[in-house]
Amino acid sequence: MGKLLCMALTASLVGNTSPAFAINSSNAVNVHPTTIYSSQNLNKESYNISSKKIEFKNDIIDVDMTIPLINGLKDKETEIKINKIIENRAMDFKKDIENMAKEAKKENALTNSYQAILKFKTSFNKNNILSLTMCFYEYTGGAHGLGYNESLNVDLNTGEEIYLKDLFHNKKDYKNIINDFIRDDMTKNPNKYYENASSDFYGIIQDQPYYIEDSNLVVYFNPYEIAPYSEGIKEFKIPLKSFK
User: Taking every annotated instance into account, which residue ranges of this chain make up the domain DUF3298 (predicted)?
Assistant: First the structure.
């Protein structure tokens, strides 16, 4: 079966005021939440997002990957660390598809070339907060691809991963706010979810995937987790001001 993989790769950090978001790290940058709503870039150091291309096609696989690269961070070790995380995710993805294609050919089960495609977009890039969305397309036979998201959250000052719980370590009810938002949509739009989705939903997991986009926290679920494939990746955009 094919698989559409849309990975949200997020480097996000939000400050320690009301609404309260903070990173429990002595090296983390503090950003006032209002800077998320502002279009002004307050970075003291200049950095940019570029990319490198990996593209080839043979008798078993078609690869077309555009891999994001961070350039210009003051701390080069942090820059290398973040880029290595990104590259490892991308190359592991390609390697997995190549291995599956080789195995299918060995078993005479390869009817069409497999595909490994990667694109990305930037959803937030200012004030040492960076959000990238990496969209992977993986085809390994079958009628269509599948989709799922995976988040990587990184503090650009330290290169450390930031999980959803780290954003709200002083806000114990953040899970309830998010869960209520999701259940509300399930109740209002039951045809877009599995039967009894609202009552069967146990809530977000400890390391729930998320990213920051403008003034919203976006949490999401992979296809088949809470809804049929036809609904794709289910995203929930929750205004940051909801966490006051």
Answer: 165-240
Nearest to 16 by CA among 38, 34, 4: 34
The yes-or-no verdict on residue 145 having pLDDT over 80 is no
Full-model pTM: 0.80
Q: Is 194 exposed, middle or buried (0-12, 13-18, 19+ CB in 10 A)?
A: middle
Q: What does the longest C-alpha to C-alpha distance in the chain come to?
A: 60
Question: Which phi and psi angles does 213 have, rounded to 5°?
Answer: -140, 115
Annotation: CATH topology of 3-171: Heat Shock Protein 90 (3.30.565)
pLDDT of residue 115: 94
Q: Are 168 and 243 a contacting pair, CB within 8 Å?
A: yes
Domain ranges of the chain: 3-171
Bond before 190 cis per omega within 30 degrees:
no
Residues paired with residue 234 on neighbouring β-strands, in sequence order: 221
Q: What is the side-by-side strand order in the sheet with 234-239?
A: 210-213, 216-221, 234-239
